[in-house]
């Protein structure tokens, strides 16, 4: 595998504070994202209720979940090209504005009693698509907001608060929906996006100028997609970590497909206690964000990623041996810590080695591939659970992680600095 040589984009830089917490531009992005992420849980909890009230169908509810996943698979590469082509701040503002418009339209249709299942599918699909445009843009602008040494801290901060919101959000949303209907809940979600729009508008981003094409002409969307693939496949670090992401997503989904069933059917865990046990994964995720930056002193990041894979293998082994809910929680804690730890360093490596004018395409392509691997793993895990004892799926996942670690070492992942 050889490294591809790509001309770096010219960045008209702005002053970058030495401290992450004195970086006003990052704080604008972080605060706005926290508000929108927290209030968005009201929408994600209310949407199944909307579908249920309109259809009373499990198929309709599960189809909505599929519609929310499709944009990542269908438009991953295209969104990456768009993010790299246009002014990212304006693109982020446009994405948030369109999300607000969609939520307002949804509120109006529900209030007027004109909402149809297919309309909610379409609106939900568009909402997820524009949300992905914003998240891809966020990944691409982080290197523009700070010095290189702050990338790990920034990604750890984003992951930490994302985990906190994922834990607190459903509880807060559920409490609010007890005292109001989901139509009014949509207005709170809209308020969160308005706050995100305001803080995004306050950000000052340096302008990234693409290097001119060798032919001196404007490249097509297809050519820019091809450039993204070329960058991904011919850059050793990107290719190696992309293979790692595919493998980890597949194995994690393979085992994750049966965790709830195992807890309820084999450990006879009460459904009321299930959420508490599953939250151990989120707790492990939060804890790993505190060691992400100090871990850079432990060795090369490639070695850290191999260590995270081996830690995931240990977590799956603990699940295999679990005969009590406390042991199950320990295993989930280990898995959550390993997953977030590796994600932080993978995002940082991608941001460091990818020219910024191509970061949207590279992120979009890897996201698309990762989204494809997850449902395959979920399906195969569910099928295997029908024919073998469920806890052997965890043992299989542990062996898969060990094999993935060996393959990663063969591909010299440990040499990535």
Automatic annotation (TrEMBL):
Location of the protein in the cell: Cell membrane
Residue ranges annotated for the Major facilitator superfamily (MFS) profile domain, each copy included: 25-414
Keywords attached to this entry: Cell membrane, Membrane, Transmembrane, Transmembrane helix, Transport
Primary subcellular site in the record, as a coarse category: membrane
GO cellular component: plasma membrane
CDD domains: MFS_MefA_like
Transmembrane segments: 26-52, 64-84, 91-112, 118-146, 158-178, 184-203, 238-264, 270-292, 304-321, 327-346, 358-381, 387-407
Membrane topology of this protein: Multi-pass membrane protein
Molecular function in Gene Ontology: transmembrane transporter activity
A Pfam family assignment: MFS_3
PANTHER family for this protein: INTEGRAL MEMBRANE EFFLUX PROTEIN-RELATED, MAJOR FACILITATOR SUPERFAMILY ASSOCIATED DOMAIN-CONTAINING PROTEIN
Name the UniProt record assigns to this protein: Major facilitator superfamily (MFS) profile domain-containing protein
Native organism taxonomy: Bacteria, Bacillati, Bacillota, Bacilli, Bacillales
């Amino acid at each position: 595998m050889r490294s591809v040589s790509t001309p770096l984009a010219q960045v008209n830089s702005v002053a970058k504070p030495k401290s992450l917490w004195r970086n006003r531009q990052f704080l604008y992005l972080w605060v706005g994202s926290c508000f929108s992420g927290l209030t968005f849980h009201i929408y994600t909890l209310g949407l199944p209720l909307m579908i249920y009230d309109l259809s009373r169908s499990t198929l309709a509810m599960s189809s909505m979940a599929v519609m929310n996943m499709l944009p990542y698979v269908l438009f991953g590469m295209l969104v990456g090209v768009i993010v790299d082509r246009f002014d990212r701040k304006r693109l982020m503002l446009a994405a948030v504005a369109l999300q607000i418009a969609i939520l307002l339209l949804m509120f109006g249709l529900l209030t007027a009693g004109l909402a149809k299942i297919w309309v909610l599918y379409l609106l939900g699909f568009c909402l997820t698509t524009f949300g992905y445009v914003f998240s891809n843009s966020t990944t691409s602008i982080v290197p523009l907001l700070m010095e290189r040494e702050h990338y790990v801290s920034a990604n750890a901060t984003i992951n930490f608060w994302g985990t906190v919101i994922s834990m607190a959000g459903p509880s807060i949303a559920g409490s609010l929906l007890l005292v109001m209907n989901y139509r009014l809940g949509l207005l709170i979600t809209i308020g969160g996006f308005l706050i995100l729009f305001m803080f995004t508008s306050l950000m000052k981003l340096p302008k990234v100028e693409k290097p001119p094409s060798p032919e001196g002409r404007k490249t097509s969307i297809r050519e820019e997609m091809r450039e993204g693939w070329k960058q991904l496949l011919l850059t050793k670090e990107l290719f190696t970590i992309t293979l790692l992401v595919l493998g980890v997503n597949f194995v994690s989904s393979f085992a994750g497909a049966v965790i709830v069933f195992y807890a309820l059917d084999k450990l006879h865990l009460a459904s009321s206690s299930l959420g508490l046990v599953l939250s151990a994964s989120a707790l492990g995720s939060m804890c790993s964000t505190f060691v992400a930056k100090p871990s850079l002193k432990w060795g090369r990041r490639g070695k850290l990623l191999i260590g995270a894979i081996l830690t995931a293998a240990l977590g799956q082994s603990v699940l295999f041996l679990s005969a009590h809910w406390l042991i199950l929680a320990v295993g989930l804690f280990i898995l959550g810590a390993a997953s977030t730890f590796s994600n932080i360093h993978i995002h940082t490596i991608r941001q460091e080695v990818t020219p910024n004018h191509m970061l949207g395409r590279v992120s979009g392509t890897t996201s698309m591939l990762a989204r494809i691997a997850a449902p395959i793993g979920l399906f195969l895990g569910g099928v295997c659970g029908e024919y073998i004892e469920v806890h052997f799926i965890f043992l299989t996942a542990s062996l898969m992680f060990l094999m993935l670690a060996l393959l990663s070492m063969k591909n010299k992942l440990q040499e990535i600095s």
